[in-house]
Amino acid sequence: METHTIRIRGFWETVAPGRHRRRFGAPRVQVESAIIWLVIPGLIASTQVELNGEVIGVADSTVLRIDITDKLRPRNELIIVASEWQGDVTLEIVG
Prior knowledge:
This protein is mainly beta and 95 residues long.
């Protein structure tokens, strides 16, 4: 299976202390059976992740990887509740 990685770069808005928001469009997927993973590396403390108003993951480990294939909309709002993290947040499209 082939993996394509998209970095969610750009401006992360701090909407409250430790609460960071980024809006993005859904990636175009060439293969209907593709799986889209949200990957957040370099977690330093407990982290909560929300996508479009829904909590989709909580982690205490160093990397959080969540299947978001069925949760994506044409326009999305991602919120990360963490004091900090290191590295690029990415979407990995596997298919």
